[in-house]
């Protein structure tokens, strides 16, 4: 409502002598700070990879000051160092220490960056969330396919901590032109105390009605700890097989 230019703010007297931060929202501004992680899900010991850029429309601006840190749902914080590449994109990494008491919520990357446009200083803040956890189970690397009645794909699970584990997968079939096409999504879950198998099942009538045939492929395979609401593993290309 006040438009552009210098603005004077006034607030009632506040107790204490601490520092204060004022956030200015400029939804129509061409200036923005882009921030992302290279994955939405991490496990303990993996390296968090972060990319960021201060932009004026499509142009990347040089940054004169960068302050970044990572926080966990339990309230811990780690400093994050970001350095510019030759193109001006900021890159940073941090080995994740996810060993802490289970606390609901996501981890976050917080970033404040400054640059200049002409003679004017530009300041922007951004944050992005991701999940990180201690792996309670993982894929053992083995899978079995049974085509006796429809398709059954048994996925071996290596269990570190007992829990209810879910496997999800998207089944692809081959069309008349030899191209793989999505056929059906499958998911199954069971409680596992020790290593075991979770089986995805795709019914025969579903396969026949699709008009797709072998070879088949299983993609976007996920292992989920349902009790702890954690994605333990995600794999774009999991399995390719003849029926």
Overview features:
243 residues, mainly beta, five-stranded antiparallel β-sheet, five-stranded mixed β-sheet, 17 strands, 3% helix
Quick rundown:
The chain is an all-beta fold and 243 residues long. The protein has 1 helix and 17 strands.
Written account of the structure:
This protein has 243 residues and is mainly β. 3% of the residues lie in helices and 60% in strands. It is built from 1 helix and 17 strands. Strands 1, 3, 4, 7 and 8 form a 5-stranded antiparallel sheet that branches. The chain has a 5-stranded mixed sheet with strand order 2-10-9-5-6, with no helix packed on it. Strands 14-13-16-17 form a 4-stranded antiparallel sheet. The chain is elongated, with a radius of gyration of 25 Å. The mean pLDDT is 92.
Give the CA-based shape: elongated
Secondary-structure class: mainly beta
Q: How many strands in all?
A: 17
N-to-C series of helices and strands = EEEEEEEEEEEEEEEHEE
Mean pLDDT: 92
Secondary structure tally, helices = 1
Q: What percent strand?
A: over 45%
The helicity comes to under 10%
Q: What ranges have pLDDT less than 50 throughout 5 or more consecutive residues?
A: none
Head-to-tail CA distance between termini: 65 Å
Largest sheet: 5 strands, antiparallel
Question: What's the topology here?
Answer:
Layout: E1 31-37, E2 41-43, E3 47-56, E4 59-61, E5 63-71, E6 77-80, E7 83-84, E8 90-95, E9 107-117, E10 120-133, E11 137-146, E12 151-159, E13 163-174, E14 180-192, E15 196-202, H1 204-210, E16 213-225, E17 230-241
């Amino acid at each position: 409502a006040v438009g552009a230019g210098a603005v004077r703010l006034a607030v009632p007297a506040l107790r204490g002598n601490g520092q204060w931060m004022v956030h200015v929202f400029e939804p129509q501004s061409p200036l923005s700070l882009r921030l992302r992680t290279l994955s939405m899900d991490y496990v303990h010991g993996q390296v968090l990879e972060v990319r960021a850029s201060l932009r004026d429309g499509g142009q990347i601006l040089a940054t004169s000051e960068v302050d970044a840190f990572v926080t966990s749902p339990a309230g811990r914080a780690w400093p994050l160092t970001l350095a510019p590449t030759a193109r001006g994109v900021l890159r940073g990494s941090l080995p994740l220490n996810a060993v802490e008491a289970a606390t609901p919520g996501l981890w976050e990357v917080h970033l404040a960056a400054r640059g200049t446009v002409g003679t004017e200083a530009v300041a922007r803040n951004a944050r992005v969330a991701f999940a990180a956890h201690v792996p309670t189970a993982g894929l053992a690397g083995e899978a079995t396919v049974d085509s006796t009645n429809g398709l059954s794909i048994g996925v071996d699970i290596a269990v570190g901590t007992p829990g209810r584990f879910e496997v999800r997968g998207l089944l692809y079939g081959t069309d008349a032109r030899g191209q793989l096409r999505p056929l059906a999504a499958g998911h199954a879950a069971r409680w596992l105390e020790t290593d075991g198998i979770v089986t995805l099942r795709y019914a025969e009538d579903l396969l026949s009605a699709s008009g797709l045939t072998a070879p088949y492929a299983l993609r976007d395979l996920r292992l989920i700890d349902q009790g702890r609401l954690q994605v333990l593993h995600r794999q774009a290309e999991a399995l390719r097989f003849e029926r």
